Amino acid sequence: MREAFTAAARAPGARWRLALALWLARLLPILLFVGLPAFGRIAEASAHHPDAGRLLDAPSDASGFSYAWGGDVVRGPMSDLPETVSMVVILAWIVVTLLAGGITARLLDPGTRLPDGCARFGGRFLRLGLLVLVALYIADVAINTLLADRQSGAARAHHTQDYDLARTWTRGLLTLAVVWILGIVHAYARIDLIRGDRVSAVRSLCRGGMALLRDLPRLLLLEGGLALLTGVGVVGAYFARDLSRLSADASGLEVGAHVVLLLSASYLRTGLEVGAMEARCILLGHRSPQNETAPA
Amino acid sequence: MDLVWRNTSGHPVDHLWFHLYLNAFRDKESSYLRERAAEPRGGAEWDSDYPGSLRVNALRREDGTNLWADATRRFECPDDGNTKDATLARVDLAAPVAPGETIALSVDFDSQLPRVLHRTGWAGDPEDPQSLFFMVAQWFPKLAVLGRDGEGLPRWNAHQFHRNTEFFSDYGSYSVTLTVPPGFVVGATGRMAGGPVRLADGRLSTTYVADDVHDFAWTASPHFVEVAFPWTFSSYCAEAPGGIGARVREAAEESARLRGAAAPVPAPEREVLVRLLLQPDHAALADRYRWSVGAALALCAAWYGAYPYPTLTVVDPPAGGTGAGGMEYPTLITVGGDRTAPAYETGLEAVTIHEFAHQYFYGLVGTNEFEQAWLDEGFTSFTDRRVQEIALGAPIARTRYGPIATPRLRPFAPEPVFQRLSHLLRLDALPHPWKRRPTLLPVPAESPLWAYLRDLPPLHFDAFVPSPEPLPTRHSYLASATHDAMDQPGWHFAARTDYRANAYAKPTLMLFALRGMLGEAAFHRAMYGYATRYRFEHPRGADFVSVVREHAAEEARPMVDAFLRAMMESATRLDVAVLGASSARRDDGRHDWTVRVQRRGDLAVAIEVFGEDDAGEVHLLETWRSGGSATTRAVRAVMERPMRCARLGPDWIRHLDADLSNNARVSGGPGDRRPALSLAARLALSVEEVVRSYAGLSR
User: Fold this and answer.
1) What is the DSSP letter of B569?
2) Which three-class secondary structure state does DSSP give residue B418?
């Protein structure tokens, strides 16, 4: 367990090539489809505006700042943002899933080349991912059926919010638990798929679930710890952003440093993702950090 | 039901029109449900197992003649020709009612309430009477309004019940006796005149009377928790916590000063008995209702004249009957509380203030909600925003990243940096009674960690940043600005969003802009004059325009008139822009300034063109009265110093301007791309958070 956590925490540095590949795979389409167009459109609207500097620190400098103007800058020409983000999410899901085949294969067997792993397991990972989506859908239907409006119950308790609140909370917590557990099972299914060189996504998913059940306390402890580590990453990213808040008259260098800091925090979180996967590999006993340089 | 109607038209009247609104919920063929099916609105759905209906069994004159017979009664469908709609009926009288005479009618009818829908009906378990909540509205055959046609002859103004319309009826006096099962608490329009009396079978009977009202609604439930208190302007201003009372008094005094009145409100000691009928788990919200409705009572009295009724009932519907919430009836309003909403969320206050403001624009000024919804919803929305701003502070917030405006939030004061760690660790959650300050609402400390998490796109809600802009209203207006004209019947709007934009947002912004055009004093006088002159009458939009003309300065009248008519009758959109700003040094050492200005859209406004020199001094270069066909103008001036930037005014134009980002421009220079870099990077990394959620390494 200790080795697993150590490996997870060290991954941003020790596994920097894998982390960088994953980070860029996600970030490049975002920069291409969101970041650059946003820069162009915002620059077009704000570059010649005398108050544009206030966009740098809008929340802390409310006095005199026209939020309507700020809104117009990003609202009108960027009204297609939700559709663009949806498209990027789908694209990134496909790219990251293909890449995950290579990364996981390399974490399990350091002798595997990343492109080889992607080519060999990427397609299977895509099938597995789709299967998990189907499982999520079925779980969602099951939860909704379970918590379907009981007309009489709702009617009897209609004069307070208790019934609605209980149903909302139950649905939320159940959904959260299902998503979390399916996420864990999915991760172990990926490991199993590579380890057994399996073709069947269904079988791998079942074996992922069995792996979780077989070693439930230890794996839940690991996953709890990884969630905590992710939380630390989120807070770290917060401090990175908050500590580097800009004033309206910040220089170009300061703005650049701010952006670099944000990118660093983002990379750190991606590195922790790779670390989490490595920790799972270690804990399942398929590989230990000591023999990572040994040939496959 | 006994009904007495007086013919005030000056001409004989030989027929009557009745609204039978509950028949809108009878079957799917009603115009209301057809329109609703064509564009689902969400919220409470029509339940075919529990429809609503209003059946008239007989309508008898004093001589016993039943007018509700096939020969004399027919259902009418003047709006859409839907012969299956039964929400409007015409009854022919055998003998006309002479001018000034009355007709007495006895109506035998059965009303069946639907499961709560469109602000009327019941909620609860139909098998268990003690679980039920009733909001009884539009429940009796209601006479239409007898108006005049273009030639001054009497003409009934009557329409069917539509999805995008509300109600229109005439003023009268009501006396209603309500009998309910034991244990039920009743609230109703007007004041209690008798009872409650326990009948032999244990039921309770109460009589309510109301004068000078144009509707009568009531509610009953065994679960109501009643909180009653007397309200006077003076006591409210003295008692309202958190400085609210003082601010309200100050605003009322300012209004009186602008109008030249001696007292802030006409009768500061006039008492109104306010009854809050709350759900049991909302009892803790009583103070929020109390202070918000009190602020509205005080400020509306200051701006539009005294509230003339002795009572006001505020009904908080249950969780299973929220479809009854957010509605106005004479001296009775329905609101909506949510005990789980964070204390800084002011939806409760906003709805309460809005529904009370309807007591003026709908209640006292009885405009036609069928044909000119903007005259009640728009004026009410304008009023509720002003009350909120005075009582609660600027209610608009925006996230650090961006484009989503969130209304109805109380702003937070910026926190000093050293307090952030304390909040991050939630140390502020520990009791600090010595630090407690009296406020209208308990304002929780803002946690910077929560602010960060909240700013991630999946949680992208609010950042509690105060702003003077009525942003959501403006965005709603701009989204539909070119779709429909606002001065048209509700059922003519192509989409629900267009109806709402034209009934609520556009007139609200029009009034904000009008305030800027007229100036505070003239605007106060115009609004006060309109509200008091047409009290207990049915004015039209043109009446409002003529009142405004009376109070506008002589030279401003043509432009004000053109502006109001364009806002009412057209679907234009305004965008004023600085196309270019330049400054060139002359041989004599001075500078030639040139500002190129453009007006897009047909709205006639006076555009002020300002130039700011490099020392920060602002000069008004020209006021361009931009009506007519000219859409661009080059403004030139010779100044002592070089120009730094050009800006457009006046300030109130921001309410209607479609794009504020082009209202100012620096003179020359390569442009500043720092903000774009920072904002685009933050946006991209926010999107990365979304992508990470869905496309992580392990999923």
Assistant:
1) H
2) helix
- Mutation choice for A interface testing from B474, B679, B694 by most A CBs within 10 A: B679
**Strand intervals (E) in B160-261:** 172-180, 185-188, 191-198, 204-213, 218-221, 225-231
Residue B565 host element (H or E): helix B557-569
Most B CBs within 10 A among A125, A158, A212, hence the mutation to make, goes to: A158
CB–CB of B671 and A252 under 8 A? no
Rg from Cα positions in chain A: 23
Domain boundaries, chain B: 2-163, 397-431+438-459, 575-668
| Nearest beta carbon to residue A39 from set B453, B475, B677 | B677
What ipTM goes with this model?
Answer: 0.85
Q: What is the pLDDT of residues B214-239, one digit of tens each?
A: 999 999 999 999 999 999 999 999 99
Q: Measured between CB atoms, which of B124, B672, B680 is closest to A47? A: B672
Cβ–Cβ below 8 Å for B133 and A158: yes
What pTM, to 2 d.p., does this model score? 0.85
Out of A74, A255, A266, name the one closest to residue B688 (CB).
A266
CATH number of B575-668: 2.60.40
* Residue A81 vs residues A67, A77, B213, B677: alpha-carbon distances, Å: 19, 9, 50, 17
On whether any CB of chain A is under 8 Å from the CB of B339, the answer is yes
**Cα(first)–Cα(last) distance of chain B, in Å?**
68
Of A93, A241, A250, Cβ closest to residue B694 = A93
Instruction: Identify which of B398, B664, B680 has the shortest CB distance to residue A42.
Output: B680
pLDDT digits over A182-240, tens only?
988 998 899 889 888 888 889 989 988 988 888 888 888 888 888 888 788 777 776 66
Instruction: Tell me how far apart the 2 most distant CA atoms of chain A are, in Å.
Output: 68
**Among the listed residues B378, B381, B354, the one whose alpha carbon sits nearest the alpha carbon of residue B295:** B354
B667 touches chain A (CB under 8 A): no
CA count, 13 A, side-chain hemisphere, A288: 6
User: B192 pairs with which residues across the strands?
Assistant: B208
CB contact under 8 A, B469 and A48: no
Which of 594-613 (B) contact A at CB < 8 A? 612
A291 to chain B, closest Cα gap in Å? 23
Dihedral sign from CA coordinates of B464, B468, B469, B470: positive
